[in-house]
Amino acid sequence: MGERTFPRRDVVIKATALPRKPAEGEEGGNPADLAGSALLISKPGIVSGVGLAGLAGMVLAERGMPAAGIVIPCLASVIGAASGAAVMNGILDSPLDARMPRVSGRVEAMRRVGSQGAFALSLGLILASLFLSYRYFHGMTAALVLAAVLSYTLLYTLVLKRRSPYGTIPGGIPGALPVLIGYSAVAGRIGMDGIILFLVMILWQPPHFWTLALEHREEYRDAGVPVLPIARGEPYTKILIFLYGVSLLPATLALWVFGYCSEVFGLAAFVLWCFFLLSCYRNVVGRRRYRRAFGASILYMMGILLAVIVDVSTRLA
Questions:
Q1: How far is residue 255's CA from residue 258's CA, in Å, rounded to a whole number?
Q2: With contact defined as beta carbons under 8 Å apart, do 130 and 81 qualify?
Q3: Cβ(263)–Cβ(272) under 8 Å?
Q4: CA distances from residue 300 to 5, 51, 126, 283 in whole angstroms, order as listed
Q5: Which end of the chain is more exposed for a tag (fewer CB within 10 A), N or C?
Q6: What is the DSSP string of 216-251?
Q7: What is the DSSP string of 162-185?
Q8: Does 1.10.600 match the CATH number of domain 36-315?
Q9: Residue 8, pLDDT score
Q10: Helix pair 263-280, 234-257: axis angle to 10 deg
């Protein structure tokens, strides 16, 4: 008789009240939340730097600030392509990101948007950027936009990142291509000054990423990504950070030496380089504050790009 003291309907009520885990893409019914999630998976921090690089390329080609009719569609194309490639990178890297706590917010945002929604967003952004670059500029500009997207999503994400500890070296190409995209949009060709700034960004990318890899090497290990600190060790990684860091000074000063920028830029480039190298010494060698070195690296490159834009724009004004 004691077994019948709990009415069956109570059991039914309790069973129907159990919480259910939302399926992928089911959350985000609130448009504001969905828009915020879509913005997060497009990596706006990285994209803003890419846009600045594109503007620097345009300024070098114009020898001043281009007209708004050039700047706006070019930046829209660069930012759209970078955002679309970032979303595609998140889709392809989702199995790896799920094992890395540092990107848990992006993983959750990707789940809210859903893989189908993310793919549609990525494809839409990439196609729109290709249309803009071809419609308003040149075939070369559109080809460079496509090269940036493919080199990041396919070459780096699916091949280099997963197979080689040195993958970040050629992996810096898509991040540097916006300089050439901006340059070609204005001039219809690529000049030596654009190539120099492109090479500066290529040299900057590896030490920038390696400071992050040192900070999160255990997460990369758990995810099975063979970053340099795991494959070759911490001391070797620190040596390469400094070798690449030292090489940035002659590369940036080349813009002054060959007359593309003024001596004011040369001085600014030297001061920024000292700041970057000192930060690496204090936070990579002196102490293991790799996140600070990573932040200093971002400030360094933003400073270089802004110095180029301001110097060239005001030099002939």
A1: 6
A2: yes
A3: no
A4: 72, 16, 29, 15
A5: N
A6: THHHHHHHT---HHHHT-HHHHHHHHHHHHHHHHHH
A7: HH-TTTTTGGGHHHHHHHHHHHHH
A8: yes
A9: 43
A10: 170
pTM of the model: 0.89
* Nearest residue to 109 (alpha-carbon basis) of 92, 99, 94, 120: 94
CA atoms within 13 A of residue 268's CA, in its CB half-sphere: 20
CB 227 within 8 A of CB 217: yes
Contact 46, 1 (CB under 8 A): no
Confidence of residue 138 (pLDDT cuts 50, 70, 90): confident
Query: What H or E segment, with its residue span, contains residue 80?
Result: helix 68-92
Cα 270 to the center of its chain, rounded Å: 25
Count the helices and strands in the chain (H runs, E runs): 16, 0
- Report the chain's mean pLDDT, rounded to a whole number: 90
